[in-house]
């Protein structure tokens, strides 16, 4: 798999463009055409030719509708004859009882239009079915070449560039320094180790505040060389990962140690010992809405390793904003280092896919007419993601979120490299919900995390862009289901009725260690089977042969 997934490369260094073949003939500014975009987290409306409309800020009630409105207007200043449409779904891609694929089908039946660009939740599956275009035909485009090659490689399958990064964010650890200071807890530096993290979160005041929300297996996943790193670098017939390695086994005992001052393990322990789950923790859980970010922003956690996408709400300085962190001193650190891996960060990646116009005539070869359509869609998508004008347009555009006006630019960081990265980060910092993060003295951890991210200290995979699921009795299930759920006694023991061992029980660590060899075998078998399906799809729809693998 190394042929299509490689380590994330330098993000903030200068990317030298090397001439490789003919120069790219960009889209003619007089080109006429039409594209339709589909996104979630919207308002449910279909906006036709949105770039030529005049819509008041207060009439835009979702960030994604406002985003396309702003970008389409900027795009139409350059390409005035391209009609840009957008349909957005309320909530998440599979919310409200309608799957993302069904939402797409319903739209196309109702409006008689094909979706040309969409946010993908399963890029591998869509490649396997031949749904998405191979964007590598634009590899000579200077904009294409400006995109971080490592990020692009996360969506590249044996040479088929199946997507662009619609949303990209480093995944670190929220830390509440004020809560630590108020309780005389030593605060580690941003370049903390796993031992320093363990010491830091080994404090709590039951039903008031805790060291962490959960026991972060992600620190083991990216903190060893035999899990995320092996998935990234896998090639040929080599194993995909080794969750039974000495590295992983050496870190497993930390799970039980972290559990002593972590909300979810303590809730499990408390609820299991009370009749009808009438746990003394329940008022504490109810007060914080049972959502990890609420616990952190309310000052009930020293650290939070999840919900990285809440960054903009956490940093929002609007008086009374519901998501603003209620602390005068908080930060975001990279993940702690281990004996095997330096401080690193995870990656949040939502791919953007473009329709495979080559199959419009049931012939996988791209005709001139199909290329012309594809070029329009690619040009808009790359403009949206990588052009300074699109970034500035989103930063200038407002929309109404409930009773509050917000800017359309989201928390996604730039995908471009070199000077363009720095310019777009300046635009990113100009947003009211990002501005305080520009202060390096106030947020040294955030800047250290971004430095790690920019310098390529990242070896992670995206569940939306990697072969992450397999069919289990007709249900799409995570390949690493057992690993991701070993906190559940039923999963750990294989007995659906089991109630122990839990993470706070004495036998937990030994039980996990005993299961690792079996889970490792199952995971590698599943990864291998899913990649075989992907390869067959590439041969069927994209002209690949066994020699390409």
UniProtKB/TrEMBL annotation:
Residues 1-25 form the signal peptide. The keyword Cell membrane does not apply. InterPro entries: Bact_solute-bd_prot1. Gene3D superfamilies: Periplasmic binding protein-like II. Keywords: Signal. It comes from the Bacteria. PANTHER family: ARABINOSE-BINDING PROTEIN-RELATED (PTHR43649), DIACETYLCHITOBIOSE BINDING PROTEIN DASA (PTHR43649:SF12). This is ABC transporter, substrate-binding protein.
């Amino acid at each position: 798999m190394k042929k299509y997934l490689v380590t994330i490369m330098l993000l903030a260094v200068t990317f030298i463009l090397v001439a490789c073949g003919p120069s790219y003939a960009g889209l003619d500014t007089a080109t006429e055409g039409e594209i339709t975009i589909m996104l979630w987290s919207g308002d449910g409306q279909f906006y036709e030719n949105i770039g030529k409309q005049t819509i008041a800020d207060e009439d835009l009630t979702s960030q994604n509708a406002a985003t396309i409105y702003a970008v389409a207007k900027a795009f139409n200043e350059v390409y005035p004859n391209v009609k840009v449409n957008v349909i957005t779904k309320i909530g998440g891609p599979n919310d409200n009882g309608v799957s993302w694929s069904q939402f797409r089908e319903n739209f196309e039946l109702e409006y008689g239009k094909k979706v040309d660009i969409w946010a993908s939740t399963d890029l591998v599956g869509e490649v396997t079915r031949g749904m998405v275009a191979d964007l590598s035909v634009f590899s000579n485009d200077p904009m294409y070449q400006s995109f971080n090659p490592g990020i692009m490689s996360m969506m590249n399958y044996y040479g088929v560039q199946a997507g662009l990064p619609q949303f990209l964010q480093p995944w670190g650890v929220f830390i509440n320094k004020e809560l630590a200071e108020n309780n005389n807890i030593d605060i580690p530096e941003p370049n903390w180790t796993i031992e320093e993290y363990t010491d830091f979160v080994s404090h709590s005041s039951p039903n008031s505040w805790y060291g962490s929300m959960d026991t972060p297996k992600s620190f083991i996943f990216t903190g060893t060389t035999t899990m995320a790193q092996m998935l990234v670098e896998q090639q040929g017939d080599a194993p995909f990962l080794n969750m039974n390695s000495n590295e992983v086994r050496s870190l497993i005992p930390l799970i039980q140690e972290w559990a002593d001052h972590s909300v979810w393990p303590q809730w499990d322990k408390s609820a299991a010992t009370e009749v009808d789950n009438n746990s003394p923790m329940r008022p504490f859980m109810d007060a914080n809405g049972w959502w990890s970010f609420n616990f952190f922003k309310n000052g009930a956690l020293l650290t939070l390793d999840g919900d990285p996408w809440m960054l903009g709400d956490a940093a929002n300085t609007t008086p009374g904003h519901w998501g603003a962190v209620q602390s005068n001193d908080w930060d975001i650190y990279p993940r702690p280092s281990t004996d095997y891996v330096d401080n690193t960060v995870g990656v949040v990646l939502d791919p953007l896919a473009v329709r495979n116009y080559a199959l419009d005539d049931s012939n996988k070869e791209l005709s001139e007419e199909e290329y012309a359509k594809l070029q329009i869609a690619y040009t808009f998508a790359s403009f949206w993601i990588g052009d300074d004008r699109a970034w500035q347009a989103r930063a200038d555009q407002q929309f109404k979120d409930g009773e509050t006006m917000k800017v359309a630019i989201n928390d996604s960081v730039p995908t471009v490299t070199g000077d363009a990265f720095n310019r777009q980060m300046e635009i990113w910092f100009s947003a009211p919900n990002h501005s305080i993060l520009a202060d390096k003295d106030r947020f040294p951890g955030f800047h250290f995390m971004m430095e790690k991210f920019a310098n390529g200290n990242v070896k992670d995979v995206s569940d939306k862009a990697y072969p992450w699921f397999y069919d289990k009795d007709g249900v799409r299930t995570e390949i690493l289901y057992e690993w991701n759920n070993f906190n559940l006694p039923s999963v750990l023991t294989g007995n659906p009725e089991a109630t122990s061992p839990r993470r706070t029980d004495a036998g937990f660590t030994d039980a996990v260690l005993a299961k690792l060899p079996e889970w490792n075998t199952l995971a590698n078998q599943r990864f291998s089977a899913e990649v075989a399906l992907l390869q067959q799809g590439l041969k069927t729809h994209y002209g690949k042969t066994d020699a390409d693998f």
